[in-house]
Amino acid sequence: MATSTIDGIVEEAVLKRRRAQASLYERVVFRLDDGTTKTWAKAVVLNDVADLVVPGTRGRFYLFTAIDHRGISGVRTVDGRAASGVPKVNEKASIWVIAMMTVLNAVYVLALDKISILALVLMILGVPMYFLYRQVRVDAERHFAADAGYRPAPAAA
Amino acid sequence: MAAAWTFRDAAGLATAARWLLYADAAICTAAAALSLGLGADELIYGDLARPLALAQLATALGSLVAFLIWLYRANANARALGATDLMGSPGLAVAWFFIPIAFLFMPYLTVRDTMRASAEPRDWQGQSAPALAGLWWACYLAATIFGAISFRVVVEEQYDMIQVIGGLDLASNLLSVPAALLGAAIVGRVRQQQSAFSRLADRFA
Q1: Which of A61, A90, B33, B113 is 20 to 30 A (C-alpha) from A106?
Q2: How do residues B96-120 score in pLDDT, each as one tens digit?
Q3: Do A67 and B87 touch (CB under 8 A)?
């Protein structure tokens, strides 16, 4: 859907929960270089990236917004560290929904000789959802890669 | 690339949506009062049953359509006022009401975010979630669920469950009243906040 970049320092990072691969932040508050603040609420962040999202980290932050969630897809710090990535959990969930609803409808047809309308609608909706989630991830990865030569300068960042 | 949104005053839309929501609240109040006063049978089989059902259908559909048109405009206006990073699009904000499973929670999130973005467009995610949105959605969702179950029982022609249908309809009507009034309050608040920001933007333009 949308990607954006901000330059600044992490002022506050309130972690809601951390799983094996990704973390969910209640909010991350950035102090931007122009002195204003920007809050990024309910942010999903891969753990590699989350390790750099701690108060005091200064650099460039790459943000993304999907149709039903948002997150931080990359960080480049002033001391040269960098990490990027977008969780694939929603893409996988879409595939699962499509597969499960297909199986459910097959069982319905074979056993009851009718179709579940709800399963059919979910199966059909799963397809655009998968492509929308995938597009967000691809856009975020491209966005980060396009900035490959960038190194935040301590004075400017 | 994010689309560029233009602010358009939604005064007319907001007024229409609010009056239709008030009308819906009034009809639901009348239906609940009749049900309590005359009994569930009267509301289903009585002389008033048909005109009341038609009036309820008209105000429920009318207020929903007006609210959704207003929501599209309010969401687009919040973006035009500088609220970046709102999820989805104004069109999707409306579409969530019709997408299975997602309609259980996404309409709340879009209305909540539209309210937060209208209160402080620049750093809207730093705003706390307005209680009004949560209350409205709780009432609206519960009323819809009770109404849907009642409708399902009627469709299945289980007329021996007339008291259950009456109870479900009464619950649905009683919850629809605060849902409609809270919806009207949301429309009014967002319209007021967006107008104030628009005037401020014009002054500094």
Answers
A1: A90
A2: 999 988 999 999 999 999 999 999 9
A3: yes
Rounded distance between C-alpha atoms, residue A15 and residue A23, angstroms: 7
Of A29, A68, A122, the CB nearest to B106: A68
Interface contact B123-A38, CB threshold 8 A: yes
Nearest CA in chain B to A12: B126
What is the per-residue DSSP string for B23-89?
HHHHHHHHHHHHHHHH-HHHHHHSTTHHHHHHHHHHHHHHHHHHHHHHHHHHHHHHHHTT-TT-SS-
pLDDT at residue A157 is higher than 50? no
Q: With an 8 Å Cβ cutoff, is A98 touching chain B?
A: no
Are B54 and B30 in contact, with CB atoms under 8 Å apart? no
pLDDT for A156 beyond 70: no
Look up residue A73 and give its two tokens. Answer: 């897809």
Please name the member of B85, B100, B125 whose beta carbon is closest to the beta carbon of A118.
Answer: B100
**Which residues share a beta bridge with A71?**
A44, A64
Interchain proximity B84–A4, CB inside 8 Å = yes
Q: Is A2–B100 a contact, with Cβ atoms under 8 angstroms apart?
A: no
| Nearest beta carbon to residue A40 from set B2, B88, B125 | B125
Mean pLDDT across the stretch B122-126?
88
Contact A29 B2 (CB under 8 A): no
Residue B85 touches partner A, C-beta closer than 8 Å: yes
B167/B155: higher pLDDT: B167
Q: Identify the three-state secondary structure at position B100.
A: coil
Report how far Cα A122 is from the mean position of its chain's Cα atoms. 23
Q: How many residues does this entry show for chain A?
A: 157
Say how far residue A89 (Cα) sits from the centre of its chain.
9
Specify the amino acid at residue B108.
Y
Asked if residue A155 has pLDDT above 70, the reply is no
The answer to whether residue B3 scores a pLDDT higher than 90 is no
